[in-house]
Fold this protein.
Amino acid sequence: MTDRQPSQPSIVTHRREIAPGLVTLRFRNERVARHTTAGQFVNVIPKRGFIDPMLRRPFSVYWTEGDEAEIIVQSHGRGTEILCNTREGEALDILGPLGRPWMFDSNDYMTAVLLIGGVGVASMPLLTRELERREVPVQTFYGARTSNLIAREHLKNLQLATDDGSEGFQGSNVALLRTFLEARRLEMPKIFACGPTGMMRAAQSLAAEFGIPCELSLETEMACGVGICQGCPVLNEERVFQRTGRKFRLVCTDGPSFQSDEIVL
Ligand SMILES: Cc1cc2nc3c(=O)[nH]c(=O)nc-3n(C[C@H](O)[C@H](O)[C@H](O)COP(=O)(O)OP(=O)(O)OC[C@H]3O[C@@H](n4cnc5c(N)ncnc54)[C@H](O)[C@@H]3O)c2cc1C
Ligand code: FES
């Protein structure tokens, strides 16, 4: 699927509130539903016809089934607040699928370790489905502030960590994963991580310390989503710069996921 497709009006068919300010929206959009691969995203105008906010907002594709797709939205600012309040029957303006998928077909691992922080869960259900189709064992380390902010649907082998200790390990999901790595409980792991910057940096260091492959899916601020505005740069590691001559890559078209040892956060 190219980035050059026009956007499509997409009727919301189902809205589910997981917690206040955290909802899933299912919408009808054949192109997104049929052509998204795990890790790709859509760029959304929160309400058709609205000019405030004017720019689209990016969201990972959370689930697809038939001609319908879903996103999960956490209220954060103006655009996400409007989206969270969308009602069934209203139309979103959706461009996508955009970006590159997770690199789940690499042959450098036997166990997929899904490391999730908060709404970073968004691209993990489709990744779990792809990995299950390939019969790759999956272990999921999901960290959230508190238990009712955990979106558990479509995930497998959940190890939970909450900041307030309301469920699972009290502390960070990275600290929990560390205990598994130290005890050698994961055979040839590769980390697929998405979450806040602090968690991503911790994942980057953990992967380097244990010498394991790691991919980070970045949730940088974006505008166009298709490589035109240059508004979503990520700094390349020195050796990538030496190899490619590129100081930066664009999260929207080169990512959103990158090998953790190739970028500077
Ligand atoms: C590839 C990708 C996938 C994403 N997937 C999801 C998803 O599935 N679910 C979801 O809820 N969110 C996701 N996000 C983040 C989401 O796009 C932002 O939260 C949203 O654009 C903020 O818009 P807003 O109008 O609510 O906030 P604004 O009113 O634009 O901004 C409010 C505040 O948040 C800051 N901000 C804006 N965007 C971001 C950002 N990306 N990261 C950190 N701070 C930001 C602004 O600087 C400002 O301080 C994703 C981002 C990317 C790049
Ligand atoms: S958002 Fe415009 S180039 Fe990436």
